[in-house]
Design a protein that fits this description.
Blueprint lengths: L1 E4 L2 E4 L5 E3 L2 E7 L6 E6 L2 E7 L9 H11 L9 E5 L5 H9 L4 E5 L3 H10 L8 E4 L3 H6 L6 E6 L14 H10 E13 L4 H11 L4 E6 L1 H4 L5 E8 L5 H9 L6 E3 L1 H8 L24
Parallel strand pairs: 7-8, 7-10, 8-9, 10-11
Antiparallel strand pairs: 1-2, 3-4, 4-5, 5-6, 11-13, 12-13, 12-14
Helix pairs in contact: 1-2
Length: 288
């Protein structure tokens, strides 16, 4: 549980807690006061800085933050849908950087959400509504053209469920987005990046504009990692994304246009009937 002393939050972690997906645990970050890592079954799932919600520790989450920053003029409130909640890292980020934003979260693990809400308080005045539901089912229930941004970051264990990787899923996201709205999707993959290439082909079959943000070593197939796929029916802010990704502590590349053609190669869009979950990460990914 959390308790406040003035403006400082002191956390009393509850220890390993049974949740729908197994066991969740909150561990303090020894390098940042007021920061916590959420692990589910030993897999790092989220990082939260209670004192500075604008701090995004995970590199791929920082790239998603760039997409959110560039989705509209600075500070303008947004309607954001988060598919996958975890510790609500990006919902906290939007609440602070874009006050007044309306945020809807689909997180199937209600026990996990209760743990997070009790132990890691949201910023004051955050308008965040969490629904205990499967991400695709929640998306299907939403009104058309009701979101400016959809963030897709859903994992069962360390894998993205198959039904969240398909053309039909991408079409549901497109339906919920307003004209000019944008999708940011976490795509976890390793050599030879067959899953990531198929995900790009899938999004390109639905959206007019797609790009990929990723660390060069992951793009070259040297290691397992997280790529961020960005999609919209409006032109993407490629130049601004390039500048922001290049300035990150771990710089990343923006792959678009002909480079994205080459990356995708002969990969095909994936329909529901052929869906597979994302690859299982090798054990060393979480032991470094």
């Amino acid at each position: 549980m959390a308790r406040r002393k003035g403006e400082r939050v002191e956390l009393l972690p509850p220890g390993p807690t049974p949740v729908l997906g197994g066991t969740a645990e909150l561990l303090g970050d020894a390098d940042r006061d007021g920061s916590w890592m959420l692990l589910v079954n030993g897999t790092p799932q989220s990082h939260v800085d209670l004192e500075d919600p604008t701090h995004l520790e995970f590199e791929y989450v920082r790239r998603m933050g760039h997409v959110l920053d560039l989705a509209a003029e600075e500070g303008r409130p947004l309607d954001v849908v988060h598919l996958g909640g975890g510790a609500l890292t990006l919902a906290r980020y939007v609440a602070v950087t874009r006050p007044g934003s309306r945020q809807r979260v689909a997180e199937i693990d209600e026990t996990l959400t209760n743990l997070v809400r009790a132990s890691l308080p949201l910023p004051r005045n955050a308008r965040v509504r969490v629904r205990a539901a499967d991400a695709r089912a929640a998306l299907a229930s939403m009104h058309a053209a009701s979101a400016d941004v959809v963030v897709s970051d859903v994992f069962a264990g360390a894998r993205t469920p198959a039904h969240l990787t398909t053309v039909e899923y991408a079409r549901e996201v497109q339906r919920v987005l307003r004209p000019g709205g944008v999708l940011a999707a976490n795509v976890a993959d390793g050599p030879p990046l067959a899953f990531a290439r198929a995900q790009v082909a899938t999004l390109r079959s639905v959206f007019a504009e797609v790009c990929v943000l990723a660390e060069p070593g992951t793009l070259r197939g040297r290691r397992f990692g997280n790529l961020v796929a960005v999609a919209s029916d409006a032109p993407l802010p490629i130049a601004a994304l390039i500048r922001r990704c290049a300035a990150d502590p771990m710089p990343s590349r923006v792959v678009e246009g002909e480079d994205l053609d080459r990356f995708t190669g002969d990969a095909r869009p994936i329909p529901d009937a052929e869906a597979q979950p994302s690859p299982e990460p090798p054990p060393e990914v979480f032991s470094r």
